[in-house]
């Protein structure tokens, strides 16, 4: 089959497109999928360059390695190469392993990105395309229990934009208990996760304030943002202190302290990313005197993905796919992804 193998931590040259990779066989409890579409995500690039290593203190992105790789995976352990990445998987079941009903063959499915670790321990997770081979291939195996059949009129590319970004976004809102009538500030709102947060927060009935570059303001307003703050402006001056109920942050970096200033007393801050840099300055007095809650959101309860499937099947949300690329053009797709001159998602399409 055709697949893109990551041969080690490093630059774009570490992504090798091959058409002679063996088709995997589904084991007990697994299904074999023909991959129809696979979105491009920050985690693909972060994993490739070793950004998850604690040796890294800078921002994400770039085409050169930044980490030493010994703790470059999501779990803080060394990855095994070659690795097939791809955290987003939309595909069709073409074979089943032992213990899985053959009736599943033919189903169109979405595979959950953040999966429960086989140990079953709370808050332990394994990531598709990191601790296991992912969707940058014609075929992949997945646990049957993590492959969700879906009935909708969306294109494969639209569905392929969903699993990683939208489950991350829904998990952030779920873990921070965002509800109708609340004011929610979203950083990095033009990216895959950020634009998903905007849509999903609006679905909950929240008032959404998006932080984006000035050129992307019209796109975010069209997406449903009630207010837009231009990236680089002083957030506290624009919005006022203690003016929002929750902050959903994907950026971190040097502007981070201002995010706590705009939170009301008893407000919630949730994060699943740090594209501007993972090291921030925290005044502990702000945290405890305002009774703030800080939430890291990686582990996902099954209900998060189940709810997401329901939203799709009831047409309560709709993804924003900016462009699609053949799988063999993954370097071009990641190059455009890193340029950040778009709103929404980029999706790779494997050969049929």
Give the secondary structure arrangement, pairings included:
Layout: E1 3-6, E2 15-18, E3 30-39, H1 42-49, E4 90-96, E5 108-111, E6 114-116, E7 125-127, E8 139-143, E9 147-149, H2 156-160, H3 163-175, E10 183-186, H4 192-203, E11 207-212, H5 217-223, E12 227-230, H6 235-239, E13 244-249, H7 256-261, E14 263-271, H8 284-289, E15 293-296, H9 302-313, E16 321-326, H10 330-339, E17 345-349
Parallel strand pairs: 10-11, 10-13, 11-12, 13-14, 14-15, 16-17
Antiparallel strand pairs: 1-2, 3-4, 3-8, 3-17, 4-5, 5-9, 6-7
What is the compact description of this entry?
The chain is of the alpha/beta class and 352 residues long.
Please tell me the overall pLDDT: 94
Quaternary state reads: single chain
What order do the helices and strands follow? EEEHEEEEEEHHEHEHEHEHEHEHEHE
Structural class: alpha/beta
Radius of gyration: 20 Å
Main beta-sheet strand count, sense and barrel state? 7 strands, mixed
Given the C-alpha coordinates, what overall shape results?
A: globular
Question: What helical percentage do the residues reach?
Answer: 10-25%
Distance between the amino and carboxyl termini: 10 Å
How many individual helices?
10
Question: Which range does the strand content fall in?
Answer: 15-25%
| Low-pLDDT segments, ≥5 res | none
Structure summary, number of beta strands:
17
Notable features of this structure?
globular, 352 residues
Explained architecture:
The chain has helices at residues 42-49, 156-160, 163-175, 192-203, 217-223, 235-239, 256-261, 284-289, 302-313, 330-339, and strands spanning 3-6, 15-18, 30-39, 90-96, 108-111, 114-116, 125-127, 139-143, 147-149, 183-186, 207-212, 227-230, 244-249, 263-271, 293-296, 321-326, 345-349. It is of the alpha/beta class. Strand 1 and strand 2 form a beta hairpin. Helix 3 (163-175) packs across helix 4. The longest helix is centred in the middle third of the chain and has 13 residues, at 163-175.
